[in-house]
Design a protein that fits this description.
Blueprint lengths: L10 E4 L8 E3 L4 E3 L2 E3 L9 E2 L4 E4 L5 E3 L11 E9 L5 E4 L2 E2 H5 L2 E8 L5 E5 L12 E2 L15 E3 L6 E3 L16 E6 L19 E6 L12
Antiparallel strand pairs: 1-12, 2-11, 3-4, 5-10, 6-7, 6-8, 8-9, 8-11, 12-17, 13-16, 14-15, 16-17
Length: 222
């Protein structure tokens, strides 16, 4: 059972068509003389971690999806980045901080953005099968700092950085626009017992689709 809260962002698991690949996003990445226009917009201390939900600003730049803000459309899920370092070396990474981005040029992100993609995510609370068809927002509770949209975890020196985005403990109300819609139970193996995830677990893992998607009409919770 999922007895431990150990979120991992929105992890792609399948697409109904069988195509679940990430796509390239360069945004407003461009050069104009000696000026470089970056394809991202982050605040101090923020980073892009693998499986973090992302949005697009009005300037066409990639940014973190608004935590618990159903009005903010979601562009997709971050899966990696390519960039040129200050030394001119082309680099590929699964996560990147604002500090590293500020020193980089020719930045290109890889994003899961197909509206049909199905993801797995952990709820900061328990859910039963009645959650199917309901919508959730991303968790932004100050009491759970490792579960916010902007946070993540870096493993080892230069290892893999994974998002710790989770879903709120409860679904949004009937008729309210949410960020993701539950379509079923997650297949993720639960921690710490390595047992099967199940409905009613303390921190249930569910399968979701982005319902406030930048590429499709929004839908509200049932």
């Amino acid at each position: 059972m999922s007895a431990v809260f150990q979120p991992f962002g929105l992890k792609p698991v399948y697409h109904p068509s069988g195509l679940d690949r990430a796509e390239q996003f360069a945004g407003t990445n461009s050069f104009n003389g000696n000026d470089y226009t970056a394809p991202y917009s982050l605040s101090s201390g923020q980073s892009f971690f693998q499986y973090t939900p992302v949005a697009i600003t009005t300037s066409g730049q990639l940014t973190l999806a608004n935590a618990a803000a159903a009005s903010g459309k979601i562009y997709g899920v971050f899966n990696g980045v390519e960039y040129t370092t200050a030394e001119g070396r082309r680099t590929v990474a699964k996560y990147i901080s604002l500090v590293s981005l500020a020193a980089a040029t020719q930045v290109s992100f890889w994003i899961f953005r197909d509206p049909g993609l199905v993801y797995e995510a952990q709820i900061y609370g328990s859910a039963t099968s009645a959650a199917i068809g309901t919508a959730y927002n991303f968790n932004a509770a100050a009491t759970v700092p490792t579960s916010t949209v902007a946070s993540g975890i870096a493993i080892g020196n230069g290892g893999a950085g994974f998002s710790t985005t989770a879903l709120n403990a409860t679904a949004v109300g009937t008729g309210v626009q949410g960020q993701v819609r539950v379509i079923g139970l997650g297949r993720e193996i639960a921690f710490p017992s390595n047992s099967t995830n199940a409905w009613g677990d303390a921190y249930t893992i569910v399968q979701v689709q982005i319902c406030n998607n930048a590429f499709s009409a929004p839908s509200v919770s049932v």
